[in-house]
Every structure is written in C-alpha cells, then in structure tokens.
Amino acid sequence: MKKLKRILCLIGNYLPPKLNSYFYKLAGVKFNPSKVWIGNKCYLDTMFPENIIIKDNVCISYGVTIVCHFDPTKSIKNHSIHRYKKEVLLEEGVFVGPKSIIMPGVIVKKNTFIQAGTIVSKTTFLPVSNPFLKFISFNLPQVLHSPLNSFFVFSHSEPVLQSVLLRAK
After folding, report:
1. What's the pTM value of the predicted model, to 2 decimals?
2. Which of 5, 9, 67, 168 has the fewest CB atoms found within 10 Å of its own CB?
3. Do 106 and 126 contact (CB within 8 A), yes or no?
4. pLDDT digits (tens, 9 = 90+) for 49-101
5. Which of 83, 11, 98, 71 is nearest to 46 (CA)?
6. How do 43-44 and 113-114 pair as beta strands?
7. Are 123 and 87 in contact (CB under 8 A)?
8. Residue 43's closest CA among 73, 72, 71, 23?
C-alpha cells in the first residue's frame, strides 16, 4: 500500500492542475481538492505524502517543491544530520510563489505570501521573499484610466510611491 501511495504521488507530480489534486489526495496528502489549487509541475514529497497538510483557500503555484524528509545516503552516514521526517503545514489563505521550496517541519501561517523562488526553512507568518531580490521605489506621477487599472486613477498632483521587485544584479 505504501508503494502504491508513492506511485500515485509521483504521477500527480506530472499531471496538470485539478487532475493532480486527486492523485495527491489518493496518495495521502491531507487537503480538500475543491478548495486548494496546485499548479503545474509541482513536486510533493513522494516518500511521505501523508506528512503534507494543506488547509482551505491555498494556492500553490507552478513548480513548487514540498519536502517532508531528509535521508542521507550511506556515503555520508557519519554526517551530524541523521535521517528524519517532519510534517509540513500550509494554513488557510497561503500563496506559494512559483519555484519555491518548502523544507521539512515548516508551518506556513494563515494568509502568508511566499514570493517566487523562495526557500522556506523555518515556520513563518509574514510575507517571505527571496534574498536575491531587492525592493526599488520610484514615483509614479500619473496612472492613465484604462480597463486594466480602472481602480487606480491618480493625477500629477498626487504622486504615488510604489515598490517594484527587480532582480538583484
């Protein structure tokens, strides 16, 4: 039965959204498929899928990896870190950005936003960002009225300070 669950989780890792959710559920991942979005090419731990708990209204973007265990090979058996497995919990309202990695034992608290490419190795409840990204601020003197930004119309007399994420060089 354990091998079947591992195979189902592995198949789920390569299926498109919505279809992948049902394979993850059959593999033992604890979540409600109708209230969680798991994107394309995500990799959920195939060894211990039952250690992944995802609450309602969670969005897991493209290419996210969730790891629940560490199993060193015999070549490093004298390493100070030994084999272990821990649960990963994503609480309600969490957004996990593309290509992020969530490590064993992490609890991502309610309404947390994890930016793209972030490695989460500790329990968190704030917006988490990639250390290789930096914030750059600039003044935006005017935003023109259009269907795309109909809620954000400003005049020249009201400059708006915005933050934009740019890749650090």
Report:
1. 0.71
2. 168
3. no
4. 999 999 999 999 999 999 998 877 666 666 666 778 899 999 998 999 999 99
5. 11
6. unpaired
7. no
8. 23
